[in-house]
Amino acid sequence: MTTRKTQQAPILVTGVAGFIGFHTATRLLERGERVIGLDNLNDYYDVRLKKARLAKLKPFKQFSFTKTDLADRVKMRRLFAKQPIAKVVHLAAQAGVRYSLVNPHAYTDSNIEGFLNILEGCRHAKVEHLVYASSSSVYGGNTQMPFSIHDNVDHPVSLYAASKKANELMAHCYAHLYRIPCTGLRFFTVYGPWGRPDMALFIFTKAILEGKPIEVYNHGRMRRDFTYVDDIVEGVIRTLDHPATPNQAWSGDKPDPGTSSAPARIYNIGNHQPVELLHFIEVLENALGKKAVKKLLPIQPGDVPATYADVEDLTRDVGFAPATPIEEGIARFVKWYREFYKK
């Protein structure tokens, strides 16, 4: 992406020490944007990895960081009042389907209360556009493939998914009431360098290198729309540059879930090429030069057997075109993993 100078007010990126947040902030900084990064650096996974990501951002002169918890209403109010904020990329959240079965309150604190604080901040700061992370998990019990933003998503199968669906509804309220352009992005299984240790690729890579068995759920018949992080970031930034607008043809007689008469939009952001988990593991084995010891298990509660994104709307509206095959993406991840962990 071409570098450009801007005197515009900064962009707030929440979850900046996280996987997608780090990559998004890097790309924005490289094109000359001013970025305020927010993260609470919680210990959901290794804080050293989060700090290592931050260390890569700190050399940028136009980057500033604030360690703040989304659920802290007073601090969040102060953050938005302190200086003008042009746009918000809200990627901070309590992630993970399985963890939501263990610690459900973490999801209401961060994903509900925290998101409300973001919306209130955007309202009072009169931001130009809020882009926020939703999830493919919202499709829950849906079985018609590919998943479309125009389908009803009222049957979540985990609290994490329910919290993301709630975010979409909350954002729509604020778009309707205060005319804040709000765009929700339903991410589909993002992977790549600097990824999260709780994600399959990270877990599998570590176990295979250590000669330990990997747990393969649904006997490896899971199908996921694995999407490389650079493709995701390109889509996030293209979306950020195109604030949501009302759909003039929207009708309450036949309401379209993906658009609105308010400036609110929902998009899928995925690779549009689902891959079976066993093939994904085979590609990883080739990249590592080592075979996995597989422990085949039934599907876990809260998991869905397949995800497959219909990205036609995002392609039409912002030119989104994922371009990284899993062979290339996994090879890049393995290279980073070996360098970072000296394996």
Give an account of the 3D structure.
- It is globular and about 55 Å long.
- Helices cover 39% and strands 16% of the residues.
- It contains eleven helices and 13 strands.
- The protein has helices at residues 19-30, 47-57, 73-82, 99-102, 105-125, 159-178, 200-209, 229-240, 277-288, 312-318, 326-341; strands at 11-14, 35-39, 63-67, 87-90, 129-135, 182-187, 190-191, 213-217, 223-224, 227-228, 264-269, 275-276, 293-297.
- Helix 1 packs parallel to helix 2 (47-57), helix 1 (19-30) packs across helix 8 and helix 3 packs parallel to helix 5.
- With 343 residues, the chain is of the alpha/beta class.
- The longest helix is centred in the middle third of the chain and has 21 residues, at 105-125.
- A seven-stranded parallel sheet has the order 3-2-1-4-5-6-11, with helices on both faces. A two-stranded parallel ribbon has the order 7-10. Strands 8-13 form a two-stranded parallel sheet.
